[in-house]
Amino acid sequence: MAHTERTIAVPPDQVFAVLADGWTYADWVVGTTHIRDVDADWPAPGAKIHHKVGPWPVSLHDETVVLKADPPDRLVLRPRIRPFGELTVVFRLAPSGRDGTRVVLEEDIAKGPLRWVRNKLNDLLMHGRNKETLRRLADIAEHRPARRTGDEHQDSAGMARHA
């Protein structure tokens, strides 16, 4: 199993908001190249993201399914890259400091031929991939505009200001 951690400089609800936006999945998941569709109830258990994995022209059409969702603390996914196999990916989010989030990402091969290559080298490769995934997730979460609360108005430049 590959275990990767990173502290992101926004609260857990802001990190989870990125995880909950299925259309951003290809922006932060290394190896996913295109989102074809996202179920309307993503990230509810059973909801799917339909995506392409790998470079053209050998990219595969497949999906990622939500196994469990406990916003803003935990998300468990089952990415499928058939015929090679399926993974189990767990995101655990916890407050860190005043406004940060400690994200723990654990990934393991759940089923399929990829299980035959499960070893320390494979875990190291997955860890490197997941380190980049968390870096991308942090970039999006830290630079995405915060949600408006309803007591804000936009000025002429489109910037939010409190009423």
From TrEMBL:
Pfam families for this protein: Polyketide_cyc2 (PF10604)
Sequence ranges of Basic and acidic residues compositional bias: 142-155
InterPro entries: Polyketide_cyclase/dehydratase, START-like_dom_sf
Renumbered residue ranges of the record's region Disordered: 142-163
Protein name: SRPBCC family protein
Source organism per UniProt: Luedemannella flava
SUPFAM superfamilies: Bet v1-like
